[in-house]
Design goal:
With 147 residues, the chain is mostly beta strands. It folds into 2 domains: 2-37, no CATH class; 80-146, RNA polymerase II/Efflux pump adaptor protein, barrel-sandwich hybrid domain (OB fold (Dihydrolipoamide Acetyltransferase, E2P)). The chain has strands at residues 2-8, 11-21, 24-29, 32-37, 80-82, 87-92, 99-100, 105-111, 114-119, 124-129, 136-137, 142-146. Strand 1 and strand 2 (11-21) form a beta hairpin.
């Protein structure tokens, strides 16, 4: 409810706007209730609702189940790849057991409305993947562990 003070022709009026729907308003002036019509409909702003589509997997593609705790629990080893920025994983390009070379594309993540290719920093074999497509990650979360 909004409260207003009006002075009309020297007289003071206390006005409480109880509700406004479309072009009709319910108000109270100095304790007396009135239903009034408005010349122009009042537009109320609505907060938009963000709706994201569920990540779809391709037929025959296995969905990776990820436990939430291991990715940032404990001390990361020298053989792990950490998230450079907070963001969302778009695609994981490797599988457990894959041999990767320095510069190979490991995954694609979205951060600050940009797609970022995450490349291998050294040669190795993928031992564990701790993220899946569609998952949100924080900076320094472990993404992939190597042997």
């Amino acid at each position: 409810m909004k409260k207003f003070k009006f002075i009309i022709d020297g007289a003071s009026y206390s006005v409480n706007v109880k509700s406004v729907e479309g072009n009709k308003a319910e108000i109270e002036v100095n304790g007396q209730s009135y239903a009034v019509g408005l010349e122009q409909e009042v537009n109320t702003l609505k907060t938009p609702i963000l709706v994201r589509k569920e990540v779809q997997t391709k037929p025959g593609e296995n969905k990776i189940t990820v436990a939430a705790a291991p990715k940032s629990a404990g001390k990361p080893s020298a053989n792990s790849l950490k998230a450079p920025l907070p963001g969302s994983i778009i695609r994981v390009e490797v599988k457990v057991g894959d041999t990767v070379k320095q510069g190979d594309l490991l995954l694609v993540m979205e951060s600050m409305k940009m797609e970022n290719n995450i490349l291998s920093e050294k040669n190795g074999v993928v031992r564990n993947i701790t993220v899946a497509a569609g998952q949100a990650v924080l900076q320094d979360d472990i993404l992939i562990e190597f042997e």
